[in-house]
User: What shape does this take?
Amino acid sequence: MSNRAFAALALAAAAVLIAASTLVTNDYFFSAAYTVLQFVVLATAWNVLGGYAGYVNFGSAAFFAVGAYSSIFLYKWAHPPLIVMIVVGTLAAALLGLAVGYLTLRLRGVFFAIATLALAVMLFTFVVNWDYVGGARGAYILQPRELPFGLKRYIHVLYGAMVIMAAVALVVARTIETSAIGRGLAAIRDDEMAAECAGVPTLRLKIFAAGVSGGLMGMAGTTFPYYLSYVEPSAAFNLSYAVNSIAMPLIGGMMTWAGPLIGALLLGTVQQLVQVTVSSEWNLLIVGALLVLFVTIAPSGIMGWVGAWKRRKKK
Assistant: This one.
């Protein structure tokens, strides 16, 4: 399937999901679906740099928070439409990704991972001391009273926005994977020194991947303030965003665009069920247990296991 056909299919699926949601009367469905789709975007975004290029990023929460606090800043400054907040937050996180990529992607392995973790700590400290966006006390965001398309609750708007963002993230990831950029990133992942010797522009590709990854993570966070209505730094920089954005591609499979989607749908749905039936405090424990299980049974994730099973079947 060509990338254009896939993009059309993804947007058509998004339209179907949005249209079908009008038949749902339980608002919890929209809240749970919003959270799961948010993880789809985060996992897909992380995989662009962590899966395709092999650079493990522990700073996912930082880029997510940049998107969230960009929306808070714009809300306090001019109250623009949601689409403006999404675009600006995405661009701000993408620029941060480009800057961080330029400064840190000469580092490799654990050194790069530590640098991204330090970025999250630095940004958290900055936001805590930035009074205009609420600082340590947090910020209240009022949802608009006038809703488009005759919708009854603003969570329906946020659900529709997140469906479209998930579709966009998947289209971007698949387009990169099937292009010359994706092949270059795969060469970097397999052997960066050999890729450089073969003429692959490794630094430019890594910076590009960092910018795209950061932008998509920021996009996932742009609607977060409207979703919670009250945002404090510890919520935007929550550890669960960093953990889940890594765990979901690992469980689903990091070598393909479909892996993060499968991992996010599986793990996100399980977390939502546990949150309702038991407690949200169990979520990180479940993530850890599933990681240990999949690393032991299927180190390449669900997609890798399926691919190996198909190869054995052909033999």
Q: What stands out?
A: Residues 4 and 18 are 21 Å apart (CA to CA). The mean pLDDT is 87. The longest helix spans residues 27-50. The longest strand covers residues 139-140.
